[in-house]
What we know:
Elements: H1 2-23, H2 27-54, H3 63-83, H4 90-95, H5 100-103, H6 109-114, H7 121-137, H8 140-165, H9 175-188, H10 198-203, H11 210-222, H12 226-254
Amino acid sequence: MLMVVKNQIRITILSIKYALMREMLNKTTFITNIVFMILNNASFLIQWIVLFSLKKNIGGYNIKQVILLWGIASLTYGLSHFFFKKAFDLSETINNGKLDVFLVQPKNVLIQAITTDVEPSAIGDMIYGYIMLFIYGISLKNFLLFTLFGICGSLIITSITIIFSSLSFWFQKSDLIVDTVNRLMVNIATYPDGIFKGLTKILLYTIIPVGIVNYIPVKVLTEFNIYLTLISILVTILLVLLSFLIFNKGLKRYSSSNLMIART
């Protein structure tokens, strides 16, 4: 069992490595994508700086907490879209029968399907995340917690995407649900949670787990709380396991669907 896991990890690393090498063939484009993503993120933060020049507190957050929120959001987005880029196209992969190529390989189908490509601009998001941490105030504790929450957040985002994408095994047009959930997670991630109330706030800690991905890390980094940290780790583990469970259950239906379209 341990050998199988080690082989899968090695294969996954090689898959990501070769995907990155393909993207780096054109180094100018590769570097430009990274730099422009950093500049794009910085342009949005300027708007918040202007707002905080008019008001010192927005939704219970000060300027340093918003900077930290942007850092967490950028890091989680970057990690998920760099290492698991194809997870965000999983509905299309299922609907178009493009899983067939992975079914004949002696590797985990889901892991192979979501790690065959990388998003170069996501490196810019990751770099920007750590820039924001540096501005907020970097220390060994903050760096380790920030990285931990970045990894947990990226796994949660990816798992939620896989869960909703796996509905394609049962329903048509489920990709619309996936797109909606992903857009909401991205658009809401950089707004203080104090501006959300009632049912909306409940949704942000459940179906659209922005609260766990972004708001809990800000609270822990601002004032350390071991219980919130453990909740974040536990939710990550549960969602990863659930994503594999639902995908594999759906895959049994796919195997008899006669979708044999070749991968392009």
